[in-house]
Specification:
This protein has about 300 residues and is an all-alpha fold. It is about 75% helix and about 0% strand. The chain contains ten helices and no strands.
Length: about 300
């Protein structure tokens, strides 16, 4: 948690973050060694030797990145760009939950009848599409522009949750399921924590880069850049040639920062979509010679 707060501001290669990463790696190494060598470990990491379970944990991690990341990005965008309050943000995000609720019985029925690998691949591909559709937001994007991407993500999430659970736990023995279920769910939460840290790194790192690029384009007379920040393109040719006056700088600086932040948010959506596509590539590895049962989780 501390690393997630410090890295976006100080940089992932700063001494503080390198120290925290090293300490975390050492702690993980000690934990894994201790867990594998003791007769009664807290977590049965040996279950990860089962390929279907390991792939299922990878899918759960990718779902956590996209699920928690999207739930984090939407309020950030609506609050800082659109200026909405908590109620308006909640009403906007209600769309995803409603889509999940409506899709639940259908997903359960299909999961009982079809190969979970096909359903999982379809779910993550659809999830990637829903995340990717949010890559093109502008400073004017609001509820209506967010509606269909949220619907697609809400439908996809059910297929990213139920079939991977069957893939991961279906071939395990009854004695293995309790520990494996905890590890499987832990991977989703871990993915969410790392996903949010990744998003913050993108927002902190990319916003200033986009702002500098927009500023340079405006000074060069780029009318498209003026339109992107909400400035009258006519001002580009009439007033923005040469150094900016203090008054003009005070006028356009907040507009540039908001537009740059929107572009950074779009970069974060692209990163989340890439993780969802990575999950699709993991699906072929979720194969076990044993038949997939229906574990009670």
């Amino acid at each position: 948690m501390t690393l997630g707060r410090q890295a976006p501001q100080r940089g992932w290669l700063s001494p503080a973050c390198i120290g925290l990463l090293s300490a975390s790696a050492a702690g993980i190494g000690i934990f894994v060694r201790r867990t594998l060598s003791t007769a009664h470990p807290v977590v049965q990491l040996s279950t990860l030797k089962r390929r279907s379970f390991a792939a299922g944990c990878g899918l759960s991690f990718c779902l956590g990145v996209g699920l928690f990341g999207s739930v984090y990005l939407i309020p950030v965008f609506l609050a800082f760009v659109r200026g909405h309050d908590a109620l308006d943000i909640g009403l906007t995000m209600l769309v995803t939950g409603a889509a999940q609720l409506a899709m639940s019985p259908i997903a359960v029925a299909l999961e009982r009848r079809l190969d979970p690998r096909w359903l999982t691949a379809m779910g993550f591909a659809l999830f990637a599409l829903g995340l990717g559709l949010s890559m093109f937001q502008t400073r004017n994007t609001d509820f209506h522009e967010m509606f269909w991407p949220q619907i697609i993500r809400g439908v996809a999430i059910m297929f990213c949750l139920l079939p991977p659970t069957r893939l991961a736990l279906g071939s395990l023995t009854e004695a293995q399921v309790p520990d494996a279920s905890g590890l499987f769910n832990l991977m989703r939460n871990l993915g969410g924590a790392i996903g949010i840290a990744l998003i913050d790194s993108i927002l902190y790192g990319r916003t200033s880069i986009h702002a500098d690029a927009l500023h340079a384009r405006l000074l060069s007379g780029d009318a498209a850049a003026a339109t992107a920040i909400g400035l009258d393109p006519g001002l580009v040719t009439s007033r923005l040639s040469g150094p900016l006056t203090p008054g003009m700088e005070a006028l356009i600086r907040p507009m540039i920062e908001k537009a740059a932040f929107v572009w950074s948010v779009n970069d974060a959506w692209a990163a989340l979509a890439a993780v969802a596509l990575l999950a699709v590539l993991l699906v072929p590895f979720a194969w076990d010679d044993r038949s997939h049962g229906k574990p009670e989780v």
